[in-house]
């Protein structure tokens, strides 16, 4: 599949621009073992996406042009702009000459609250503190402690989810450059996955998809194909996700936040291997048999 920046329409045209495709075929020169070959490579697309609330542009993020309805809702929930999916009344995704505009209509009360704390955001692929304008705004309180699910996470469930993961990651298979965020049942079966060039965006898309589907946060865990930064923990906690599993490492700040929120935070997830950084009592007993429980309760 190929994509390119859409040409601008003539002035006064009522036609809609097509949304860009998620990948782009680009000529490349491959060099291996002293040999050179001109070929084409499928690279992932990233597009400026403006999130517009009641006609006012609030954030511009660089994102993959897929599942943008989920992205907009998940971002809105994760940033505290909306308290629930029902406060989003309408949403339209529209391609422009400069990128994509996601135009949302939200409740008057939420829009007034947004205007009161409105700030300019600029998102990057690896952004960490997008739009934060003071040190006091770096972290948000996690709110009520997360409810512990009535099931315990097993090593087998994590291993099964990791086994299934590559088969769900279409964009990664095509380009090798997409992060994924999956929603997984207690048995390890993946139920939903969203991809994006940005790890935060992938999780936002997953949160949005779960909200649109009316899924219960207690019915599974989130699996991310990246490190677990404080913002990833914050987004998961805002969605009331009580278990976050990352294939890479967490940060110390993320582990502290997870502990305060009552979240089981897993890093370095591999087949039959994992490291619990907080709330290890949420693990199945066999996974904790060799742990010093005093360090994790």
The CATH class label of the largest domain is Alpha Beta
Largest sheet: 6 strands, mixed
User: What is the global morphology?
Assistant: flat
Structural class: alpha/beta
Into how many domains do the coordinates divide? Answer: 2
Helix tally equals 8
Strand order, sheet with most strands: 9-8-10-11-12-13
- Helix-strand sequence: EEEEHEEHEHHEEHEHEHEEH
Oligomer: single chain
Look at the structure and name the CATH superfamily of the largest domain: Cytidine Deaminase, domain 2
Mean pLDDT: 86
Descriptive report:
With 297 residues, the protein is an alpha/beta fold. The chain has two domains: 47-137, Ubiquitin-like (UB roll) (Roll), CATH 3.10.20.10; 155-295, Cytidine Deaminase, domain 2 (3-Layer(aba) Sandwich). Helix content is 26%, strand content 29%. The protein has eight helices and 13 strands. The strands form three sheets. It has a six-stranded mixed beta sheet with strand order 9-8-10-11-12-13. Helix 1 (68-78) crosses helix 5, helix 5 runs parallel beside helix 6 and helix 6 runs parallel beside helix 7. The longest helix has 15 residues, at 199-213. It is flat and about 60 Å long. Mean pLDDT is 86; it is low at 1-5, 119-136 and 290-297.
Task: Summarize the topology.
Elements: E1 23-32, E2 35-44, E3 47-53, E4 56-63, H1 68-78, E5 88-95, E6 100-106, H2 108-116, E7 121-122, H3 155-168, H4 170-175, E8 179-184, E9 190-196, H5 199-213, E10 221-224, H6 230-238, E11 243-246, H7 252-261, E12 264-270, E13 273-278, H8 285-288
Helix pairs in contact: 1-5, 5-6, 6-7
């Amino acid at each position: 599949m190929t994509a390119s920046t859409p040409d601008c329409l003539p002035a006064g045209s009522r036609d809609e621009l097509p949304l860009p495709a998620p990948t782009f075929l680009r000529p490349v020169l491959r060099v291996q073992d002293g040999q050179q070959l001109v070929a084409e490579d499928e690279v992932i697309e990233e597009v400026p996406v403006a999130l517009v609330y009641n006609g006012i542009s609030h954030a511009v993020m660089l994102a993959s042009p897929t599942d943008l309805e989920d992205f907009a809702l998940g971002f809105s929930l994760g940033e505290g702009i909306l308290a629930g999916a029902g406060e989003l009344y309408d949403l339209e995704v529209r391609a422009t000459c400069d990128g994509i505009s996601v135009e949302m209509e939200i409740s008057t009360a939420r829009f007034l609250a947004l205007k009161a704390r409105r700030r300019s955001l600029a998102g990057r692929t690896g952004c960490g503190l997008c739009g934060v304008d003071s040190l006091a705004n770096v972290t948000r309180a996690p709110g009520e402690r997360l409810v512990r699910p009535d099931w315990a996470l097993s090593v087998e469930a994590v291993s099964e989810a990791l086994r299934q993961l590559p088969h769900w990651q279409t964009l990664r298979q095509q380009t090798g450059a997409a992060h994924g965020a999956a929603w997984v049942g207690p048995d390890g079966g993946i139920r939903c996955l969203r991809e994006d060039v940005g790890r935060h965006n992938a999780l936002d898309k997953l949160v949005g998809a779960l909200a649109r589907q009316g899924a219960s946060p207690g019915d599974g865990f989130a699996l991310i194909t990246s490190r677990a930064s404080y913002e990833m923990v914050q987004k998961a906690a805002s969605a009331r996700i009580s278990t976050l599993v990352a294939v890479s490492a967490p940060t110390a700040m993320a582990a502290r936040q997870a502990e305060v929120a009552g979240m089981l935070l897993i890093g370095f997830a591999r087949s039959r291997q994992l490291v619990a950084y907080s709330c290890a009592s949420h693990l199945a007993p066999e996974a904790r048999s060799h742990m010093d429980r005093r360090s994790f309760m």
